[in-house]
Amino acid sequence: MKDEPLVSVVVPTVNSERFFDKCLRSIRQQTHGNIEVIVIDNYSTDRTEEVAKKHGARVLLVKSERARAKNCGANVANGKYLLFLDSDMELQSKVVEECVKIMENDATLGGITVPERSIGSSYWVKVRDFERSFYSKTEVESARFFKKDLVLLVGGFDEEIEFYEESTLPQKIEALQLNVKQSVNFFILHHEEDLKLTDWLREKYYYGKTAEIYLKRSPYALHQTSIFHRAWLFLKNRRFFEQPTLALGVLLLKGLEYVSVAMGFMTNALYS
Length: 272
Prior knowledge:
With about 270 residues, the protein is of the alpha/beta class. The protein has 13 helices and 10 strands. Strand 1, helix 1 and strand 2 (about 35-40) form a beta-alpha-beta unit. Helix 1 (about 15-30) runs parallel beside helix 2 (about 50-55), helix 5 packs across helix 13 (about 245-270) and helix 8 packs across helix 13 (about 245-270).
């Protein structure tokens, strides 16, 4: 175990106890044995900290948004590699092993993408899972696994941005002429059982308030945010039409998301 490179898994949390135990168990059950878990908690009032400590995680209390929380975790991590994970995600057992193996054998890599699947029984969760299935190896996906020295070199995630904040770090690393598009064949399982359409759209509205900054700074912004590009990712694939009920849900959901982001964008423009 000690001969394996140390991987630091950084998890931002706030009142995250519902799925957090599953998240931490999946980390402990990784086939790669040398892992530390760093939890950056935004002063949760539930059992989040208790659950984290039960699994031997290191907990730091930091009042912050997600980008700053991840950067704080990166700054205190001891690992050679960093994996950024959300508290409602589970890892398939070989995710970390595969990421380390690929990264150790390719000096041109700066980041690795781990594809996601949405878990839950509601219609909107099934729509989300169907939608995700069309994003493999596109600019919509963002790398989660990185070399720590590169993360620190580029200054981590952009803390001024909440809109697509997860994409800001791999884009900085890619600017060093390193590949951040490599993907593994194992999945992150994202628990979205609690997904409510109103809450989801409210979150998109909030993200829209920093969309202008992202659009100015990101070389991928047009591809990632263009409604026409998203539609093309779906409509060019015959599989999209094989599930008409889910396909209609994807188109409706994306339309509502664009409206919510646009409202956040305009609200910020009016009051800034």
